[in-house]
Write a structure and sequence with these properties.
The protein has a single domain, classed as ABC transporter involved in vitamin B12 uptake, BtuC (Orthogonal Bundle). It is mostly helical. It has 13 helices and 2 strands, in the order ααααβααααβααααα. It has a two-stranded antiparallel sheet. The longest helix has 27 residues. 78% of the residues lie in helices and 1% in strands.
Length: 281
């Protein structure tokens, strides 16, 4: 495996963690988030700052995970009273706020970002193994949550909050839990990205990146683990294998989002289910 293939596979692994983490918030608990990249960025900047003062990689990644989860919990607390479109607007504001703050702070590198992030002596292949380990762990954790009693509670909240309250579920607690877990996982992905590129800038974690992550979830099928992972691999690799697409990547994501929402709300997972039904029939 050459350096190009290793780098590409590493990027795929990081995006899988991101897509799975957003799926936990949007797919499991029905909370539309348009600012997920902000928590991705919080993890990346936390890791970058701590690694430059000599913290080991296992502590910096843990700190990025916790920092994003804590700030995600705070954002979740302030957003508990809003739903659907209003929640989307609030989370969108978080994305713009994060980029704006980072650009104005010199200790965060401002517009120039942070460079020279230590590699801790890991080879590219060893680092790919670390990223894939966390990607698989994220998928397994997501699957466990979906199959647990918490997953059933998330489904009830996503389907109808008022009915869930009547059934005795603490809707606010479950929404906050989903948001905290999803944002913490995004922080882990951000930390892995910082070590992957060894250079980060504010624009990497802007609103466009949030839409990219949301596209992976929507195209795969909101709530479907398999569909989201498959769509992530597809959308990351497609511009690499078809270079002419790369210049129109954002247009492609926009068209895919519109098409999926209009013609296939269940995404690729719904399409696969339909094929299985026809085959069995």
């Amino acid at each position: 495996m050459g350096l190009y293939e290793i780098s590409l596979a590493t990027g795929v692994g990081i995006y899988i963690i991101l897509a799975v983490s957003l799926n936990m918030i949007t797919g499991y608990c029905g909370q539309i988030s348009l600012g997920h990249a902000a928590f991705y960025g919080i993890g990346a900047y936390t890791v970058a700052l701590l690694s430059k003062i000599g913290w080991p990689i296992y502590l910096t990644l843990g700190a990025g995970f916790l920092a994003a989860g804590i700030i995600g919990t705070i954002v979740g607390l302030t957003s508990l009273r809003v739903r659907e479109d209003f929640l989307a607007i609030v989370t969108m504001g978080v994305a713009f706020l994060f980029v704006g703050i980072v650009r104005q702070q010199e200790f965060l590198g401002g517009e120039m970002g942070i460079s020279g992030i230590p590699s801790h002596g890991m080879s590219k292949l060893a680092y790919l193994g670390l990223v894939l380990f966390f990607a698989v762990l994220s998928i397994l954790f997501s699957w466990y949550v979906k199959r647990s009693w918490m997953g059933f509670a998330f489904d009830a909240v996503a389907d109808d909050e008022d009915t869930a309250k009547v059934l005795g579920l603490d809707v606010k607690a479950y929404k906050l839990t989903a948001f905290a877990m999803g944002t913490a996982m995004a922080g882990l992905a951000g930390g892995l990205y910082a070590y992957y590129t060894r250079f980060i800038i504010p624009d990497t974690f802007g609103f466009i990146e949030s839409i990219t992550i949301l596209s992976m979830v929507a195209v795969g099928g909101i709530g479907s683990i398999f569909g989201v992972v498959f769509a992530t691999i597809l959308l990351v690799l497609m511009p690499e294998f078809f270079r002419f697409i790369n210049d129109y990547k954002l247009l492609l994501y926009g068209v895919l989002l519109f098409s999926v929402m209009r013609f296939a709300p269940e995404g690729l997972s719904g399409f696969f289910k339909l094929l299985v039904r026809r085959k069995d029939g």
